[in-house]
Amino acid sequence: MASIVTYTMAGGTWNRLPLSYTTPIIVSVSILVTIGVWFIGSYIQTRRQIRLPVPPGSYGLPWIGDTMNFMASSMSAVGYQKWIESKRRKYGALFKIRFLGNPLVLMEAPAGNKFLFQKEGKKQIDIYWPPQVARLFGRKAILNLGGEEHRVARRYVARFLDYTAVSRYVETVERRTVQHFADHWEKEEIRGSESDTFVIAALDKTKLFTFSVMCSLVISMDEGPEMEVLLGKFNTWARGFISLPINLPGFSFYNALKARSYILDLFSTHIAQRTAQLAKDRPGASKTAAPDILTSLLTVADENGELFSETKIKDNLLTLLFGGFDTSSTALTMIIYYIAKYPRVYDQLLQEHRSILEQKRRKGDDEALIMTREDLSSMKYTWRVIQEALRLQPPLTGGWRRATTDLEYNGYSIPKGWTMMWNNMNSHFDPKFFHDPTTFNPSRFEEPSTITPFTFLPFGAGTRFCPGNEFAKMEMLIFIHHLIKRYQWTLVDPDDPVIRDPMPMQRNRTLIKVTRRIL
Ligand code: HEM
């Protein structure tokens, strides 16, 4: 059997060392080599990172940098496009600015967005919000959580919003939709000066609709005085996001914090009532507690076997209201806007919804409340219309992140602590990815496989991909079905441009002249 030996030089001759000496020597040499390799490697890496330039761009004025330009351009759809274009011409697709004192890198599409989402998955990038925004959301809001805590909370919340869970809400959402048209459109119809036409601001109606739906989803709140007060407080709270962080009476941020306290107190009352109802519900007895997100949060444990604390429940009820309210209402309003601008789109929608109704009638179904998941799946053209509106007017154009380690991207270094932003406006309007990008053309979504990954991002991507996307889709399809079934409309001022505030809207809140039609 071969023995392991080593040799030493003693007195000019090589001697064999016994095996007991050789093992420590081999181990020591290996450790030294490993340390040496690691040291040289990290030295090269550090030198490389020092040598690698940071992305091009300008810091501008101390602290304030490009904050004002960036915010002002984000408030106008065309302005934002132009601002991005001017930066791209000067610095290329990837560039940096200074925003509220921090360097901010705007990532290019698709490679930069992909890089950001993948590194976020590997925990090298985490969520970042300016401190006043983080404070308005609350410490335990999923939007504020990072790392492992976010992963657990996210998987948990997603269970109440995935495809199966959303199927359970279809009937409730359709009920709210039918009620919405009866209360908020048909009443206008009666008030209308001409017998069968009336004028309304579509954005005001869709806001009422999505707020009502979200209140029903999260706490089963009915429309009425309590919901009206909540809506007012919610709007005051949301204005805090685009205000100066001055917590003094008279300032928007101060009012926003006060509104937040009011809303959280209201949630506390609902939590106490619901807890009492749940305690009454014995196994086998008929359930009195509503099957909404609040009941789920109070009764279902996460993967670690833990229930959300009351603080966490309240922060996340508010987050869900926020996530599903303005996003869906602006999306619906933009859909109404584009349908009016492109009458051929309306005709095709009419055809799709007429055929769904005809099938229903043949089966003898009740028409007022008809939706099933299959019906929703058959609204293929409607879904393309929604996607195309989300491409041209995404309610959210990007998301903030922060590098938790030094990063290297495409020959540039992005140092630890820098903020970064994924962005959809640069790819949604790039003719490389979307032919004739400024034209509203739903048929471009006929073949989803032709869309380049990481270029169509209305719902974001990666670990923070919108968990409400299935719900939003269901809600928008149902709304459009009932809208097309009842009405046709034209824009009162087709030349009123779409601006951003910071979500897309026309200044006249999309005033439309509506005519009744019965399908
Ligand atoms: C058309 C409607 C909607 C659009 C366009 C939209 C868009 C988005 C986008 C882009 C993100 C990612 C933000 C980022 O990466 O920083 C997001 C996250 C989120 N959305 Fe939506 N959303 C919509 C509807 C909804 C609805 C209906 C809900 C709730 C039912 C919801 C709840 C959330 C939540 C909780 C997050 C945070 C996820 C996390 O941080 O892990 N959204 N949404």
Automatic annotation (TrEMBL):
Domain of life per record: Eukaryota
Pfam families assigned: p450 (PF00067)
Chain ranges passing through the membrane: 20-41, 317-340
InterPro entries: Cyt_P450, Cyt_P450_CS, Cyt_P450_E_grp-I, Cyt_P450_sf
Positions of heme binding: C466
Named cofactor requirement(s): heme
Keywords: Heme, Iron, Membrane, Metal-binding, Monooxygenase, Oxidoreductase, Transmembrane, Transmembrane helix
GO molecular function: metal ion binding; monooxygenase activity
SUPFAM superfamilies per UniProt: Cytochrome P450
PROSITE patterns: CYTOCHROME_P450
CDD domains: CYP90-like
Family, similarity comment: Belongs to the cytochrome P450 family.
Designated name of the protein: Cytochrome P450
